[in-house]
Amino acid sequence: MKSTILSITLAAVLIGGALYLAQGGDGRGGDGITLADNVSIVDSKQIIEIRAKGGYQPRQSVAQAGISTVIRFNGKGSFDCSLAVRIPSLGVSQTLSRTEFTDIGLGVPKAGVLNGSCGMGMYPFQIVFNQ
Q1: CATH number (domain holding residue 53)
Q2: Mean confidence (pLDDT) of the chain
Q3: How far is the C-alpha of 50 from the C-alpha of 39, rounded, in Å?
């Protein structure tokens, strides 16, 4: 019994440590918010990179609210409905380039969740904006 508890505790510490190290220290926004790996802040502009091919990768991103933001879609090599992006709450309906990156400006988003999908609604994606 004692060895089982010790084993569980050790496993939890190792897994927690691995997750902590995997996030690194440079994935933080200006207010200490942990951003997704596909989010960067360059020259006071937040860039969220999403791959559009057979759906959207990643399907969920975490970004910082209150900063000028652009979603940069990579549709290179895609030939499916993920090239037609819809973000209903912003009135966005745009066809992505198959050969270049396509940027969609979001302005300065407030804290909350932004939902989008392909033109057919089959492939959803979500961006969570934290304060």
Answers
A1: 2.60.40.420
A2: 84
A3: 9
More confident position, 105 or 22: 105
pTM of structure: 0.74
The answer to whether residue 71 sits within a structural domain is: yes
Output the furthest CA–CA distance in the chain (Å, rounded): 60
In a domain, 15, yes or no: no
Range of the domain at 71: 27-130
Token pair 């009135």 is found at 91
What mean pLDDT is predicted for residues 51-79?
97
User: Over 70: is that where the pLDDT of 25 sits?
Assistant: no
Instruction: Specify burial of residue 72 (Cβ count, 10 A radius: 0-12, 13-18, 19+).
Output: middle
3-state secondary structure of 3: helix
Q: Residue 16: inside a domain, yes or no?
A: no
In a domain, 13, yes or no: no
pLDDT at 36: 80
